[in-house]
Each structure stands twice: as structure tokens, then as C-alpha cells.
Write a structure and sequence with these properties.
Length: 412
């Protein structure tokens, strides 16, 4: 890495390897099981793009507080999402593609995974060359990141009206030991327990209610760190959690209301529609930021022939999907799959290609696609990471791909 720092050029030409993968895999406990979870390659981002992402996050946060927006978003959600506990949800995930003219918001997730993993990865960054070392010195360190996470959980606890200190957290997911990101649950447990909070990891079917207490395997639970993709607690396995939430027996973060306000993909149609935003009471500055930064989105309904003719402009994703399941680029669709898309509950979003990261390899130059994830809390970006992949969507199956550190260029 030499000469004037420029993100586009560095992403094309820089072959620095700044993550000690051996040490990181050993620390996380994934030496054999998750070979493509982390990339050793850094990703570079212009400060103007990083600032653009922050502005989009802040604008979305202000929109979600508008009473008219809340009425519209919650009208599409089940009754459980109408419950307002006061807290907003930990680890909101805003996923971006960085286009030439600026960032584009592709999706919002309420239980975005990877934040604890990326804290661990921050501790495995190593010296490479003087320009890279200068960028490295500007990144927040592990201690700062960990303190921010602990403060976020404490803030969620207090926002729900709790006055005493947070004592116990339950990390809840279906068969957690079988989850791909189970190593992250262990990292979360270690981080919070080091700060005096007892943490238990479990399946929602292990929850019970004893009087006015929620228990996990007999342990009283103050706060549930919710990693379920059953966003509205509708399955039979979530019945106890649903009952506890309705009775306010524990603070749940993120909860159903957060999913309805932020992550329901129908909201992308609102956030990309300037006229609708103004009708809901948004200020002109926020309208301008969102119309520029959120690709236009529509529900897939109407004339099938028209959608087929226009399909190459769109990226199709299930309205209630997650983790890229069932998502398709329009130009890759076959007629058979397209029939399923128009018959199901799908959203279409104007296609914005991901960024690129090029790396040298033994058999030539490898091109990876890049998206940027901002982990946010109450409209503020706490962490920023990249995901490198090949194929249609992020997959953590690409050799050389995975979570990658982001280095912001400029802004000095």
C-alpha cells in the first residue's frame, strides 16, 4: 500500500492481509468449523460514503418516530407488535451497497448477527505497512467496542423502565448449538459475564414461567437477547416467550415492535417514496437523503408479463424472508422460479450492484463482491464491517471471503 490513499484504487490493488486468521479462529473456537467466516483482506471506504451511511441511518431513525409512519407500519403487523416496551432493540443492522455516487441501503435487520464476532476480529488486526497502520490507529479498539455493547444492553434495560441493575441475560435461538453463528453466542456470553451479568444460552422451548418470573432452565431472566427469526413469536416453540412478552415478565431485545417498524421489507417502499414520506410528516432533508439513498422498492403484484419484461431492473426478496433465503437477481431468474416469485409475497427493489474487492491469488486475480453492514443503536452507527462473497448473495462459503474490517479513507 503506497501513494495517495484512494478507496477505489485500494480495493482494486491492495493485497495487504491485516487479520491474523489463525489467532482469530483459535480465539473464537472455529479453527476447523468455519473456514470462511472471516477474510484477512481489509475493505476501504471513502469518508463521504461512510458519512452518507450515517445520514441514512439517522434519517431512518427519525422517520420511525413519526406517529403517521408508526401507524402505517404497525397496521401491517400482528397484535404483539403493537406492544411498546420502551426499548428500541440492540444491534440493528443496516446493509449497504456502495455505488459510485454514494451508499445505497439494501436492507434493515433487527437481529443482525456478527457484531461480537467483529469485536473479536478487531483484536486480531495486525501491522502491515505504514499507510495501513495509520488507518488502523483510527479504528475503535476492542475495549471501546466492548464497553459500547455493555452500555447498549444497560440502556435497553433502563429504557424498559427497569431501575435496578441488569443481572441476567438469556440468549435465545432455536437449537442454538446448531446455529451457524453459535460461536458468537459464546463471545456474547463471555463479554457480558466479564461485566458482572450472568448469561445463559438456550432454546425458546427451555423457557418457563413461574408466577411473575421468566426462567431459562430454572434461571431467572431479566433480559432476553432475541436471536430468533420467528420475529413475532408465532410458532409453537415461541409460545412461552410470547406469553412472557405480553405480560412484560422480561425485557426482550430486539422485540416484535422493532421488527415491524424497521425490518418489515414493505417499509422499504415507504422509505424510498418521497411523496409518501412527506405525507407522513418527514422533513425535506430526510426525504432528500432517503430518496437518494434507498433504492426504489415495490410489492410484486399486478401484471406478470410486465414484471417479467422489466425483471432485470429488480432484485426480488421474500417479504418475510431473512438471511438472503429465496432472494434473486432479476436477470438470473428462470421462468419457473419467477412463477414462484409472482405467486408469493415478494418485494422488488431496484438492483444496485455491490462493490468489489480484488485480491491476488495463486491462480490469478479474484474478484469479491462487497456489502457494508452498519450495526446501529438508536440511530447511531456503533460498528461497521464488510462482507466479502461470490455468487448472488452473502453466504460465508467463499474461500477468501467472510467478515472483513472496514477502513475509512479521508475525512482528515
Amino acid at each position: 500500500m503506497s501513494g495517495r490513499l484512494n478507496a477505489k484504487r485500494l480495493n482494486r490493488d491492495c493485497d495487504c492481509s491485516m487479520t491474523d486468521l489463525v489467532a482469530l479462529r483459535r480465539e473464537v473456537g472455529i479453527h476447523e468449523t468455519h473456514p470462511h467466516l472471516f477474510s484477512e483482506a481489509p475493505v476501504f471506504l471513502e469518508e463521504t460514503h461512510a458519512e452518507g451511511m450515517r445520514r441514512i441511518v439517522e434519517a431512518v431513525e427519525r422517520i420511525t418516530r413519526l406517529p403517521a409512519y408508526q401507524r402505517m407500519a404497525l397496521a401491517n403487523a400482528p397484535a404483539i407488535a403493537q406492544i411498546d416496551m420502551g426499548n428500541t432493540g440492540v444491534f440493528m443492522g443496516f446493509d449497504f451497497h456502495s455505488a459510485a455516487e454514494g451508499p445505497r441501503l439494501i436492507e434493515i435487520n433487527t437481529n443482525a448477527g456478527g457484531a461480537f464476532l467483529n469485536v473479536a476480529a478487531a483484536g486480531a488486526l495486525r501491522s502491515c505497512c505504514p499507510p495501513a497502520d495509520k488507518l488502523l490507529s483510527k479504528r475503535p479498539g476492542v475495549t471501546e467496542l466492548e464497553a459500547g455493547i455493555h452500555s447498549m444492553f444497560a440502556a435497553e434495560w433502563a429504557a424498559a423502565g427497569q431501575r435496578r441493575e441488569l443481572r441476567t441475560v438469556a440468549i435465545i435461538d432455536e437449537t442454538p448449538r446448531e446455529q451457524f453463528l453459535y460461536p458468537e453466542f459464546r463471545l456474547a456470553q463471555s463479554l457480558l459475564e466479564a461485566r458482572g451479568i450472568a448469561v445463559h444460552i438456550g432454546d425458546p422451548r427451555e423457557l418457563t414461567i413461574d408466577g411473575d418470573r421468566l426462567l431459562l432452565r430454572g434461571h431467572a431472566v431479566d433480559l432476553v437477547y432475541n436471536r430468533l427469526t420467528d420475529f413475532y413469536f408465532e410458532s409453537a416453540s415461541s409460545s412461552i416467550l410470547r406469553a412472557a412478552y405480553g405480560r412484560r415478565l422480561a425485557v426482550v431485545t430486539p422485540g416484535p415492535r422493532a421488527h415491524a417498524l424497521y425490518a418489515d421489507k414493505r417499509n422499504l417502499a415507504i422509505l424510498s417514496d418521497g411523496a409518501e414520506l412527506r405525507r407522513l410528516g418527514a422533513v425535506d432533508e430526510d426525504v432528500e437523503v432517503l430518496v437518494q439513498g434507498v433504492p426504489r422498492a415495490r410489492e410484486v403484484m399486478g401484471d406478470e408479463a410486465e414484471w417479467w419484461h422489466d425483471r432485470k431492473r429488480w432484485f426480488f426478496k421474500p417479504r418475510t424472508g431473512f438471511g438472503s433465503r429465496g432472494a434473486y437477481r432479476g436477470d438470473k431468474l428462470t421462468r419457473r422460479v419467477f412463477a414462484d416469485v409472482v405467486a408469493g409475497e415478494y418485494m422488488a427493489q431496484e438492483f444496485t450492484p455491490p462493490g468489489e474487492r480484488v485480491r491476488s491469488a495463486a491462480d490469478g486475480r479474484q474478484v469479491f463482491k462487497v456489502d457494508i453492514r452498519c450495526y446501529t443503536f438508536r440511530g447511531q452507527v456503533q460498528q461497521m464491517t464488510a462482507r466479502l462473497y461470490q455468487g448472488q448473495t452473502t453466504n460465508f462459503r467463499t474461500a477468501g471471503g467472510g467478515f472483513a474490517p472496514v477502513f475509512v479513507i479521508g475525512g482528515e
